[in-house]
């Protein structure tokens, strides 16, 4: 299956199990890989034959920035559900969500999750 990728998308949201995460918020870094049949688009050069990644970005942004979840696992699940509903040609989604500055004492680049979903 062909893939469309959105890498390093950054959004500010209020997701987390700790109270300060729900109040202060933080940056979430999201990578998406969408499994889509791109054969027609690769032959026709027609935007209607693919998934418009600008629209995907805007949909993900709306979810991250307007909703609140205790778990980033649920945030990822909500994003997958919405993308499958809104873009029927997406056959699979791999989503990575990272927090670069969660309220955890220690030294690390980020913490996060990866979900893989198929229709």
Automatic annotation (TrEMBL):
Under Enzyme Commission nomenclature, its number is: 4.1.2.25
Pathway annotation: Cofactor biosynthesis; tetrahydrofolate biosynthesis; 2-amino-4-hydroxy-6-hydroxymethyl-7,8-dihydropteridine diphosphate from 7,8-dihydroneopterin triphosphate: step 3/4
The catalytic activity, as recorded, is: 7,8-dihydroneopterin = 6-hydroxymethyl-7,8-dihydropterin + glycolaldehyde
GO MF: dihydroneopterin aldolase activity
Where is each Dihydroneopterin aldolase/epimerase domain found?
A: 4-117
User: Which GO terms of the cellular component aspect does the record hold?
Assistant: cytoplasm
The top EC class is: lyase
Taxonomically, the superkingdom here is Bacteria
Name the keywords, alphabetized: Folate biosynthesis, Lyase
Q: Which residues form a coiled coil?
A: none
Pfam families reported for this sequence: FolB (PF02152)
Instruction: List this protein's GO terms for biological process.
Output: folic acid biosynthetic process; tetrahydrofolate biosynthetic process
InterPro entries in the record:
Dihydroneopterin_aldolase (IPR006156), FolB_dom (IPR006157), GTP-CH-I_C/QueF (IPR043133)
Q: Which PANTHER family match?
A: DIHYDRONEOPTERIN ALDOLASE 1-RELATED
**Protein family according to the UniProt entry:** Belongs to the DHNA family.
Please identify the protein, giving its name as recorded.
Answer: 7,8-dihydroneopterin aldolase
Q: Which organism is it from?
A: Streptococcus pseudoporcinus LQ 940-04
Gene encoding this chain? Answer: folB
